[in-house]
Specification:
alpha/beta, 3-stranded mixed beta sheet, 30 helices, 21 strands, 44% helix, globular
Length: 728
């Protein structure tokens, strides 16, 4: 093995050694992973430490940050800290408790294990002086600021959150971890979803919403399915509507203009029902050879697909497209709020509803062609989603990363552009657990409880008054999205191939346990606060049979001894069907505080600073190559990869879509929202391969599909740039 020699070599040069095989004195081949650890150390020695402002004491540091408007004093004051008239901190027992938290966190002696993690933290999260020349925080300071904010005056919870982050078991999403405690900041929320009505007031409001939310939090998804199609009448005059494409162009320009203080680029997505008459024009905006007048370059596209579409494709039949304008006139509801599959034949036979038709198979093939060219559109299987939805109402679209699946209601406006009814839109309050670290620690219940409480605070603390439908939706639902990451790293540590029978069964057991403890905590919060989410009594949870029957099904609750022993040896109790029955009764009696609890995002930046493999998909490479702005290529070694097991770290492009979908299908059974499922293909794949994967996913009960990734070969493997909207 290589000697661990201390060097003053440039960090990037050290990091680049991950791209090379080295040989020891006996001729044995190895990758110098230590060089990357040294790269992280040298990065601090050579670039960060000299640019970090030094303070003699915590008191001096906090007084400076408060006085110069870098920190929000209220976050610290809620723990009893007293500020004198001159702005100085009174050193009393309350301040000593806060100092104890800093001591606790610094006692971990945190060091970034990878150059990528160190780079990401300092470039994206650490508090800097207003001129950008000085760092005012270290990693530990960011953890304390986040923990104090999310604990909301509860020091015991602040300690729990801090421990969970420092031990790598839980990581809040980028907007939360990057903004918490800062005086000049955006929102704590990862993304937002908003419905668009078929009127000029709603469309103009949507542009304003895109601007306002983009500058506050990053990603915004909008559902355009209710906008009348191109050529539809306006005020009974035929052929007047321009359809959805011009609205898409306006939104794209809006997102490119607004960002979150330069931290995250503005980013947006638009969804359209596959039954919308503009669906083909919508898809063609992403073609490489599209006319510049209609081409959409930066806006993400998603398609909402129904059972009716999949049935028509299977039978080789035509698919009917329905005018949103005539549906609204006939049903008194917008297209997005109606189950088209349920009313499909009725709509076909109704002469009052304008309709056209296309070949379902050709349209499915067209979707695959566009995905082959651009990676878009995302896909949401609408009826699969709504069959799994336990909340009263309809889920009609998803977000930028396709994992948020919540009920929404359209707002309505008067002729002055004011809200008649605020409706209910969606915000994404996200954070992710590290599966590998949780299994190492055995602290599954404790971590889930801490994470659910922390993410609930993200929802409670979000100030979204600027967009009333988002504010109302957030206040009514208290929805959160607890995610997971580092599944592939865990599989590698266990010596399992991704998608093997034991890995699939572990995924089933792990997500079942997370679901149980998440429900348990939400039930406890409801009892503690005497409050449930809006209209809990109309949800399926109000009937204990809903969860009792689901978790008496052997497929969801029975596991081989090897899996049960694995959890038992880690000190983790796998809930039984009896445990679920008791919990279901408590939920029916006392309710849940959160309408939604789980969603698995793709994770990007937080995986690097947490030293995790991204989300729950396979490695894109054992040593991943990223392009990081002005820094150029940066190499990231996946956790648990060594020179000895390098050959076992199977590449996502070689795993195959069936094994990938099999793993996600097991997790999907227990996740009340969705999972960002990217499908990976070698560049030899065809559109037929993509269609086969889509059909397999649909049959396996997958709710949404995120990107289609085609591999681009480099010397080291696969290279791609991060989608900033999903850098959670």
């Amino acid at each position: 093995m290589a000697n661990h020699v201390i060097t003053n070599e440039a960090p990037q040069e050290l990091n680049a050694q991950l791209n090379l095989w080295s040989y020891d004195e006996n001729g044995n081949k190895f990758i110098n992973f230590y060089a990357d650890t040294e790269a992280a150390r040298q990065y601090f020695l050579q670039e960060v430490n000299s640019s970090t402002r030094f303070f003699y004491s915590l008191k001096e540091k906090l007084e400076f940050l408060f006085a110069n408007l870098y920190y929000e004093p209220e976050v610290w004051i809620q723990y009893g800290i007293t500020l004198a008239d001159d702005g100085s901190i009174v050193e009393d027992d309350k301040f000593e408790r806060v100092k104890d938290l800093y001591r606790l966190v610094y006692a971990y002696k945190h060091r970034f294990k990878t150059y990528m993690g160190a780079l990401k933290f300092n470039k994206q999260y650490a508090l800097k002086s207003f001129d950008g020349k000085s760092y005012l925080e270290r990693y530990e300071d960011r953890v304390v600021a986040t923990s104090l904010l999310l604990a909301r005056g509860d020091m015991d919870l602040a300690v729990d959150v801090a421990r969970s982050i420092m031990e790598g078991r839980f990581q809040p999403a980028t907007p939360t971890f990057g903004n918490a405690g800062k005086a000049q900041r955006g929102e704590l929320v990862s993304c937002f979803l908003s419905l668009v009505n078929d009127d000029m007031e709603s469309i103009s409001k949507s542009v304003s919403i895109a601007l306002q939310l983009s500058k506050r939090g990053g990603g915004v998804a909008l559902n355009l399915s209710d906008i009348r199609e191109s050529g539809a009448p306006i005020k009974n005059i035929e052929g007047q509507s321009s359809g959805v494409v011009p609205v898409m162009k306006i939104l794209e320009d809006s997102f490119s203009y607004a960002d979150q203080l330069g931290q995250r680029k503005g980013s947006g997505a638009v969804y359209l029902s596959v039954h919308h008459p503009d669906i083909e024009k919508f898809l063609d905006t992403k073609r490489e050879n599209a006319d510049e007048k209609i081409r959409i370059k930066t806006l993400s596209l998603g398609v909402v697909i129904t059972d009716a579409m999949m049935t028509a494709a299977r039978k080789g039949e035509d698919l009917y497209l329905f005018s949103p304008y005539s549906i609204m006139r006939e049903y008194g509801k917008p297209l997005s709020q109606i189950s088209i599959s349920e009313h499909y034949e009725e709509m076909i036979n109704n002469p009052k509803i304008r309709k056209s038709k296309v070949s379902a198979r050709k349209l499915l093939q067209r979707i695959a062609e566009i995905q082959f060219e651009s990676g878009y559109p995302y896909v949401m299987f609408e009826d699969t989603v709504n069959r799994a939805n336990a909340i009263d109402g309809r889920v009609s679209f998803s977000n930028l990363c396709s994992e948020i699946l919540q009920v929404s209601e359209p707002a309505t406006f008067n002729d002055r552009g004011e809200y008649d009814y605020e409706g209910r839109d969606i915000s994404c309050n996200l954070g992710s657990m590290n599966i590998d670290n949780v299994m190492r620690s055995g602290q599954l219940e404790y971590t889930v409880d801490t994470a659910v409480r922390a993410l609930t605070s993200v929802s409670d603390l979000s100030d979204l008054r600027i967009v009333p439908p988002i504010r109302r939706g957030n206040e009514l639902s208290h929805a959160i999205g607890l995610g997971q990451m580092s599944l592939a790293s865990y599989f590698l540590r266990m010596g399992w191939q991704y998608g093997s029978p034991i890995s699939v069964e572990f995924t089933n057991a792990y997500f079942m346990a997370v679901s149980y403890y998440a429900y348990k905590t939400s039930n406890m919060i409801a009892m503690e606060r005497g409050e449930t989410f809006y209209e809990f009594d109309k949800s399926k949870y109000a009937d204990p049979a809903y969860l009792t029957e689901k978790y008496s099904d052997p497929e969801n609750i029975e596991f081989r001894d090897e899996i049960r022993n694995l959890f038992s040896e880690a000190g983790i109790d796998l809930p039984t069907s009896e445990d679920w029955a008791v919990l279901a009764e408590s939920i029916a009696e006392h309710g849940l505080y959160n309408a939604y609890l789980q969603a698995v995002p793709p994770t990007g930046s937080i995986s690097y600073i947490n030293n995790a493999s991204a989300s729950i998909h396979p490695f894109t490479d054992a040593v991943e190559t990223r392009k990081e702005g002005m820094t150029g290529r940066v190499y990231y070694p996946q956790p648990n990869v060594t020179s000895e097991n390098f050959h076992l770290a199977e590449n996502a492009y070689d795993v195959g879509y069936k094994k990938l979908i099999d793993v996600y299908a097991e997790a999907t059974k227990h996740v009340d929202q969705g999972l960002s499922l990217t499908l990976f293909f070698r560049d030899t794949a065809t559109t037929a391969d993509i269609n086969k994967a889509q059909l397999y996913a649909y049959k396996k009960g997958i709710k949404t599909l995120y990107y289609i990734r085609l591999a681009k070969s480099t010397l080291s493997g696969t290279e791609f740039s991060e989608c900033v909207s999903c850098a959670l």
